[in-house]
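Worked problem 6 (solution included).
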Amino acid sequence: MKKKSISPKDGAPVMGFYSPGVSVDVGDSTFIFVTGQIARHEDGAPVAPGDFKAQTEFIFQKIEAILHGAGATIDDVVKANIYAMDIKRFKDISDVRNRYFAKAKPASTFIEILGTVREGCEVEIEVIAVKQNEGGLVTIETFVPEVAAEKVRLAMGEAGAGKVGNYSHCSFSVKGIGRYRPEKGAKPAIGKIGKLEEVKEERITMQFERRLIKRVITAIKKAHPYEEVPIFVYPVEEF
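Solution. The predicted structure is:
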């Protein structure tokens, strides 16, 4: 897991030991947590005191800048908490909110509060966003009957798995015994319904770029003889 602080260069200075945003990489996804934002200028003065719509607009622009710093967009937001000092101004705030969240449609909470940390700032908004990671490496494993191992291994390599520098089709295999019992409704490639089966199998392991996941998995399923194909994908920590 990798954690990174996000602080836009043109934002107002923070007022304590915290980050405007924090991104947390958890494998194939990155979570971005945006601290509650209020409408204040770089000198700390409030933006348009009393104008809830203008403050909300300013805050969403700040949120977009923080998300951009993590490689995300407003469309990646999955949760939003909105705090306002006057619940009667819900429509003013909601009009702006709905425009920014037209695509994301995040889970949302709207709460009336007594005040914020800065006088004149009547609205505060915090969000959580999640974006899918396209870069980096993953490791994939599948278990294949020995008689079909070479076919599956070749298909994985042709799909882009196992590329290391100037080498392709790089893989590692371990032989073992796979066990299963086909139940009613199954269509086993090997074995009979209701009978516990033991099959000589190979565990094939390869690494590849995360962006190729769908292509490699499709290749495995197409070449693999089993009705239910065992596939395991793990993120790779790069050092």
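Discussion: The chain has a mean pLDDT of 93.
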